[in-house]
Amino acid sequence: MNHSADDRGPAAGPGSGLRYRRILLKISGEALLGERQYGVDPAFCSFIARQVGAAVGAGVEVGIVVGGGNIFRGLAAAAKGMDRATGDYMGMLATVMNGLALQDALERVGIATRVMTAIAMNEVAEPYIRRRAIRHLEKGRVTIFVAGTGNPYFTTDTAAALRAVEIGADVLLKATKVDGVYDADPLTHPDARRFARLTYADVLADRLAVLDATAVSLCMENDLPIIVFDLNEPENIRRAALGEQVGTLVHGGGPA
């Protein structure tokens, strides 16, 4: 993607040799479960914080969008009879709790962090303001975007794509439990084939479980590459930012 000097700041410095200077990391709420059945596992949050810290140490500017499925999932509640909008707002509040947990883990390893929320709650987090978010990133602060888009009926995948485009990220990193995109669930199909690269059109046409269609379409319209990778493998975030082959790359089909 192209960025203005106002958006990105100077190119020189420890991150000048990176493939992706600014990234948006999407983490599901379920990832924060770790070994637990519900809630947040502080040990796994610390593991994520160390990965993010390694990327920041390499000069990467890191934004994070976190889901809330470990605490509350609005769509599941709607399926059981709750009003969908109400359920989605409850899910947004769950993402705020997860964002605060990640902030705590990051600050414990010495990483300056800001939480920005799409729903006003000034005593807990800063309101999301695009230009302020970019400034935090330029100053080397990890910026965690919570409460989704602030609107019901939109997933945190869509929020991740939206925030990535807004802040001028070079790539959207989708953290998962497997090492890329497969033609079938590798946990239940041992012979499933992993893709090294896919186009946006492939993902949409085959309905591959990468991101929801709205998020993929937004990335496609803005030529924002997506890397689907295994969060459980140490150093993957830093390796992806350096341009190493990690997971599955989803892009427009040209040279990448």
Could you give the topology of this structure?
Layout: H1 5-8, E1 22-27, H2 42-57, E2 61-66, H3 74-79, H4 84-108, E3 113-117, E4 126-127, H5 130-138, E5 142-146, H6 156-166, E6 171-176, E7 181-182, E8 194-195, E9 197-199, H7 200-206, H8 213-221, E10 226-230, H9 236-241, E11 248-251
Parallel strand pairs: 1-2, 1-6, 2-5, 3-4, 3-5, 6-10, 9-11
Antiparallel strand pairs: 7-8, 10-11
Structure explained in plain terms:
- The protein has nine helices and eleven strands.
- With 256 residues, it is of the alpha/beta class.
- α2 links the parallel β1 (22-27) and β2.
- α2 crosses α4, α6 runs parallel beside α8 (213-221) and α7 packs antiparallel against α8.
- The termini are close together.
- Mean pLDDT is 89; it is low at 1-13.
Summarize this entry quickly.
Helix content is 36%, strand content 18%.
Task: Jot down its keywords.
256 residues; alpha/beta; Carbamate kinase; 9-stranded mixed beta sheet; two-stranded antiparallel ribbon; 9 helices; 36% helix; globular; disordered N terminus
Q: Supply the CATH class.
A: Alpha Beta
Number of strand segments: 11
Distance between the termini: 12 Å
Residue share in helix = 25-40%
CATH architecture: 3-Layer(aba) Sandwich
The average pLDDT score comes to: 89
Cα-atom Rg, whole angstroms?
Answer: 17 Å
Total separate domains? 1
Structural class call reads: alpha/beta
Largest sheet: 9 strands, mixed
